[in-house]
């Protein structure tokens, strides 16, 4: 694709020479004899790069540069000058110029600057595309009253420094809420750092959060900043905060009170400016009553509560989510493109989705991959999802009642229970093990022992 370049210079000879050189290199060139015409042409053609003379009658190049940058903050402008000074170069750079070239112009220097500037532009455009792709992954989809209430609360709290406690079942989208708050806050340009408190062993959580110095414990081979330091001036998201150890809770409380952290093995406190968002699928009031969560930390985190409803309470959003996941999976992740027929959508909307939005997304991916025709039909849903593993587990529990001995009944009941829980967590073994408070290795052994598989319910 041809790149458009705008040349703004009051010398006709310079305009002609640059136009000839750039067109020979395959660029589409527009030109203007003064700054006012150059700005007008920029609005019309939106060139990828501008060569702009510094000294011109009327509005000079530095003023034109400032106006172009106000018009388009991403404008790439190379200044050209017959008598550039250090002061001019500094002023141009401070105003957003990419580079400044001296007259008489050197062909090789022009081409090198041009290639570098366009490479810089291509990198900026790629970063923009990647950022848009990443943000679309964390889009909150839905128009139900329940999800609109969540979005309204996000809009109200995002612009404030308040801490937010996000609650909801597994798979409802608590992380999406946290990212939306960060994205709409004044800290949006700063880091968003996530810590899954349930996935980090209790003996490592303090090092992960607060950092450590080399040699402070076995395996500490270098100094390392913790998540609080990494999130400085940004947002720290404590996911599954209800699973954090009491010792780590005490230190987090101290950071929230004093805004300083001390690395493990160190004595020097480090000041941090961090907004903390937290999420949990547990009822923290019950955890406090059981002595597993600090009440003072709860009140520090529970400034603004946001509850994310389960999917079964907003079924009217399921068609929108099906369309969204179908588009994302087929357009960006290489899954075979298929339509989802209205009768298939209706059947999906009738299911309970104990694994919530996460389970629905995984199910859509399965259907798009395994459906037999050009579109996903209700028959595909019945074959590949149906009443799901829940029906299989219910049947297994009924069969357990026919066992002859208590030992046989215990094994059959355990098998049915595990099958139901694996379905609830959409066969994510790690999440299931955490939900059951069972070591993952034990769950794997039981899956192997009972020969459990997702296909048993298909």
Essential attributes:
Rossmann fold, alpha/beta, 458 residues, 4 domains, 5-stranded parallel β-sheet, Helicase, Ruva Protein, domain 3
Radius of gyration: 30 Å
Structural class, please?
A: alpha/beta
Low-pLDDT windows of residues = 387-398
State the name of the first-level CATH class of the largest domain.
Alpha Beta
Mean pLDDT: 87
Strand order of the largest sheet: 2-1-3-4-5
Compose a concise summary of this entry.
With 458 residues, the protein is α/β, with parallel strands linked by helices. The chain is built from 20 helices and 16 strands.
Would you kindly provide a written description of the structure presented here, covering whatever features stand out?
There is one protein chain. The chain has 458 residues and is an alpha/beta fold. It has 4 domains: 4-134, Rossmann fold (3-Layer(aba) Sandwich), CATH 3.40.50; 145-309, Rossmann fold (3-Layer(aba) Sandwich); 312-384, Helicase, Ruva Protein, domain 3, CATH 1.10.8.60; 388-457, Homeodomain-like (Arc Repressor Mutant, subunit A, Orthogonal Bundle). Helix content is 51%, strand content 13%. It contains 20 helices and 16 strands. The chain has helices at 12-24, 35-45, 61-71, 86-94, 107-137, 145-158, 174-183, 202-210, 227-230, 246-258, 284-289, 295-301, 318-332, 342-349, 356-370, 378-384, 388-400, 406-424, 429-436, 440-450; strands at 4-8, 28-32, 49-53, 77-81, 99-102, 164-167, 192-196, 211-212, 224-225, 235-239, 260-261, 270-271, 275-280, 304-307, 339-340, 375-376. The strands form 5 sheets. It has a 5-stranded parallel sheet with strand order 2-1-3-4-5, sandwiched between helices. Strands 7-10-13-6-14 form a 5-stranded parallel sheet. Helix 1 (12-24) links the parallel strand 1 (4-8) and strand 2. Helix 6 packs parallel to helix 7 (174-183), helix 13 (318-332) crosses helix 15 and helix 14 crosses helix 16 (378-384). It is globular and about 100 Å long. The relative contact order is 0.07. Residues 387-398 have low confidence and may be disordered.
